[in-house]
Each structure stands twice: as structure tokens, then as C-alpha cells.
Design goal:
Helix content is 23%, strand content 38%. The protein has helices spanning 39-51, 66-69, 99-115, and strands at 2-15, 18-23, 26-32, 55-56, 62-64, 72-77, 120-123, 131-145. The strands form 2 sheets. Strands 1, 2, 3, 6, 7 and 8 form a 6-stranded mixed sheet that branches. It has a two-stranded antiparallel ribbon with strand order 4-5. Strand 6, helix 3 and strand 7 form a beta-alpha-beta unit.
């Protein structure tokens, strides 16, 4: 799985003028599942998201997680994280997991984040045309890959 994790002051997702998810301070996570991803990839990614120490402590150092600050997590499915633009100008998405299995992993990620102790887990809408608004805090943006490709 791949994730773009952004520390935000606020974020929301809208589908057809309807807000599907909204948080204040916390993390906006763009989440994609790749071919071959399974439970181990999900566990790795959720653990990293929940425990990533990118919020400031009293000394101003990035030493707190979203769990530590009681922040929210807004998760948005994004298969385009597996876009391969190394050849030509149109990305290929053959590295993305097929939609049915990807939806299952996406939904499991929401459940797993709640089980990890994140008190507010919000979501976009799988396979929808979404508008994502955020106020990036820092900015702080971290890339995660369960296969540790980066």
C-alpha cells in the first residue's frame, strides 16, 4: 500500500456538493492499494499512520503522533498513487489493485485506524470524483510504502 500523509489544520472531502468527511487538526491520508497488497501491507500502513510522530511536542520537535494529540484522520482512496509515468506522458495504472479488493482494503483501513485508537476517522467515497480541501500544517507531507520502495 502507498500513502501520502499530510499534517493538516483541517481537511474535508466533498462528493456532488455533499461533505463525506471532515476533520480539524490531524492527518489527511491519500491511500492506494497495489497489486498483491494484503493484510500485512494494511497492518504496516495503518500502524505507521497512527503512530507517525509528526506533531510538535512542548519543545516544538516533531515527537507526537495523531494518537497523542487526539487528532482526526481523513482517509481518501487514491489509486493514482500507483500511476507509472516512466514511459510516455500518460500514466499507466496496472500496478494498482483491482477495484473490489482495493475497496475491501480501503474499508478495512478505516476499521483498523479506529481499532488503533484514532477517535475520529473520516472518509472520502471509494471510486467517486472527489474534491479534497486541506490546510496543510507546516507543510508536513510524508510518503509511505508498505513494500518500502521509498
Amino acid at each position: 500500500m502507498r500513502a501520502v500523509v499530510q499534517r493538516v489544520r483541517r481537511a474535508k472531502v466533498t462528493v456532488d456538493d455533499r461533505v463525506t468527511g471532515s476533520i480539524q487538526q490531524g492527518l489527511l491520508v491519500l491511500l492506494g492499494a497495489g497489486a498483491g497488497d494484503g493484510p500485512a501491507d494494511l497492518a504496516y500502513t495503518v500502524d505507521k499512520i497512527a503512530n507517525l510522530r509528526i506533531f510538535a511536542d512542548e519543545a516544538g520537535k516533531m515527537n507526537r503522533s495523531v494518537l497523542d494529540i487526539g487528532g482526526g484522520v481523513l482517509v481518501v482512496s487514491q489509486f493514482t498513487l500507483y500511476g507509472d509515468a516512466r514511459q510516455g506522458r500518460r500514466p499507466a495504472f496496472t500496478g494498482a489493485l483491482e477495484p473490489t479488493a482495493a475497496r475491501a482494503l480501503y474499508e478495512q483501513s478505516l476499521t483498523a485506524l479506529r481499532a488503533a485508537g484514532v477517535t475520529q476517522v473520516e472518509a472520502g467515497e471509494f471510486a467517486a470524483d472527489m474534491q479534497v480541501e486541506l490546510l496543510n500544517d507546516g507543510p508536513v507531507t510524508i510518503l509511505l510504502d508498505s513494500r518500502k520502495g521509498f
